[in-house]
Each structure stands twice: as C-alpha cells, then as structure tokens.
Amino acid sequence: MTKLIIILLSAVFINNYILSRFLGICPFLGVSKKLDSATGMSLAVIFVMLIATAVTWPIQMFLLNPNGLGYLQTIIFILVIAALVQLVEIVLKRYIPALHKSLGVYLPLITTNCAILGVTILNIDEGYTFVEAMVNSLGSGLGFMLAMIMFSGVRSKLEGADIPKSFKGLPITLVAASVTSLSFMGFGGIIENLFA
Amino acid sequence: MIDILTAVVPVVIIGLICAAVLVVASKIMAVKEDERLPRVRECLPGANCGACGFAGCDGYAKALVENEGTPTNLCIPGADAVSLKLSEILGVEFEDVIEQAAVVHCSGDCNATEDNVDYRGIESCSAAKLIFGGKGACGYGCLGLGDCMNVCPQDAIYLKDGLAHVCRPECVGCGLCVKTCPNGLISLTPAVEDVAVLCSNKDKGALTRKVCTNGCIGCKKCEKVCPVGAIKVKNNVAEIDYEKCVCCDACTGYCTTGCIIRV
Fold this sequence. Notes:
The complex is a heterodimer of chains A (about 200) and B (about 260).
Chain A: H1 2-14, H2 25-30, H3 35-64, H4 73-95, H5 97-103, H6 106-109, H7 114-125, H8 130-160, H9 170-185, H10 190-194
Chain B: H1 2-28, H2 36-43, H3 56-66, H4 79-90, E1 100-104, H5 125-130, H6 147-151, E2 157-160, E3 163-166, H7 176-180, E4 186-190, E5 195-197, H8 205-211, H9 221-225, E6 231-234, E7 237-240, E8 260-262
C-alpha cells in the first residue's frame, strides 16, 4: 500500500510529466490559455492514460515479452493506443454524448501525444505490476492536470500584466513555464523521506 | 528473412484486428445526424459572433435543423444572402434580414474635450473605467483605448484623435462591440437610415458644455425641427426613434453643437 502511495505522489509531484520530464509540452503551451479548456484537456489525458496502460501492459507482458518481440514496443503501442482512442470515441459518442461533448476535440488530439506513449513505456521500464502501472498512470494524469490548471492561472494573470513588447506572447509564456518547472524541482527527494 | 517476418507479421495482425474492430464499431454504433446540418452550417459565415443569440454558428445551425420554426433571418452578418440559402435548404419561406451597423454615440475627440488625468495603466477601456470612470473630463464619453477595436471581427473600428469610429460599410452588425464598451456608447442602428446622435452625456446642458464642445446640451431644437417626431430628448440627450426616422437631414444641419450627423 505504501508503495502505491509513493508511486502516486511521486508521479504527481516529483516526476511531473510536464514540469520535470518535459513530456506533453505541446498541449501544455497550446491549451493552457483558459481554465475550462485546460481542465477538459487534462481530463481527456487522465482518461486516455488509464485506458492506454490497461491495454498496453498486458500486450507487453503476455504477447511481446514471451515471444522476444520487445523491440516492437514503440510501434505496437502507438498503433494500439491510436485505434483504442478511436474506438472509445465512437463508443462515447453513441452511449455517453455528454462526456463525448465535454472531452470534445481533446480526445483525438492527445492520441499521439508523447506524454501518453511516455507513461505506457515508462510503466514497462520501471517493472511495475499491473496495479502499480495503473496507479502510476493515474498519478501522471493528475500531475498533468495540476500543471495545466496552475499554469492556466499564471497565464490569465499574464494577460493583464504590463509586459515589455519584445516579451509579449510566447516568450513570456516560456519564461513563466520555466519558473513553474523550477518550483516543482523543490519537491525532489521529499516523498522518499516522507515514509522513511 | 525469418527475423523480418516475426516482426512484420505481429504488427500486421494487430493492425488488421484494430482496423476490423474500428470498422465494425463505426458501423454498429453510428450516430444518425441530420443530413441538412452540415449544409446549413456551411451557409453560415462562421464568425461565431453570437448576433443570432445562439452559441456560435454551430449552435444556430443545430437550432435551425432541430427546432422547426427557428427564424432564418437571425444571422445579421450573413444578411439576405444567407437567409435566402437557409430558407431554400430548410424549405421555408424567405425572411428579410434587417441589416444593422454599429455607431459610437460620442464625438468627444481630443479637439472637443480634455483629459483630467494622465492615464498610464493597462491599455484597455474596461481597466481605465475602474479608475474614477476613466481619464477624460466627460464620464460618459469614449475612453479611447480601443476595447471595441480589439473585439471587432471585421476590423471595422478604428481610433482617431482618441475616439473610436465605426467604418459603417465594413460593419456586419454582429454587436460584439456593443457588449464590450464599458460606457455603453455603441448601439446598432438600421444600416440604411444613418442619422445618429453622437453624444451620450446625461448631465444637464451647462455641465455637458463645460466638459465637451461637441456634446448634446438637450436644447430640444431637433425635437421641434423633426417633421415626423422621431427625436425625443430623454435624460438631457437626444434620442432618435429609427422606426419613425425618414432620414430627411432636417436635424443634422440644425443641431446647436453639431452632434447629430450622418454616419
């Protein structure tokens, strides 16, 4: 149980996908302008991370590893995740239109995102069991959400700030992102000592 | 050779399985969409201005298709052309669109009125308005920082001498600027009848005169000269009733301060 909590917390804070691993920067800079679109994107990421792990972990363990096909990991994962998200979208559209509407365009958008592929591959590399892998995916998704929501707050403050002309737009966004990332570095080494 | 096959075959098989599942799923779980919807949506201009009262062009298209009896003449930027196409697709009678264009009810440019303070805050009318109602001497007038200009999808609004002007031929009448102006200076008027009172100062005449040489002083001369009784002075400022106005130009040359003009 303690191990699961450590995995969850370290995925959210220490190994935060955006701010420490620098994966998924594209949606982080692209969709963090408004709080509601940031939330929608994050929910879609959590959702896809969970189902992607639920499918890719068994494929790796029961199909690729026994047959010595570990080197096909990347291409098969991309293939399966893309097909899966399409399938989920069709199912959602038919049976849960409300959820389909709120996840909206974000669902197909993050299909081929590196954060999704990253979490599935890292789950295998870390040697997690199925439950640990799922918890890690959930934590990574929550960490993504935390970073997105925090940063959308920062960006809405930037809108009203008096910024020098040469820094307006993307430059000041990147500066703000780096400072946010720096603040997350402070979490390093905390979790291990928490349960020591 | 065997090595290549052991790599290719599993990938191909998994790919085929995924494809088969997707094809079956999309056939079984297809959602029926009204085939008129994409055609209706295509007709609309796609500016998502909200002038129709629905949430963007998608919302209006959906309402048109799903609720019979939704008027086809709500798209003001699209004007008659869009209304005609919509009525053809939906098989209803054509309804005329009343074209509208925005006008800024203020003529207090830098020659007519003065600033009370030197404002150096955020370049936005809504921000400036929070600080003692803006920098200008007239609390009702144009703040001149261009919130309306920034929101205009047609770039039809420009600033000149610290005052916003609407280029009427380019205006599509979406009304975004009307909602944006913190002083409520902008209104939509019928595009064909283009006489307007360019002042919104509701103070008494003498007070208005003190802060702006172009302001309406509420002398009621226009009320008397109007042949159809379309002008009424309310709250110390003249108002034109466009239902009655015949655009005869009787008032435009007659106004004491020259704030009723053709726009």
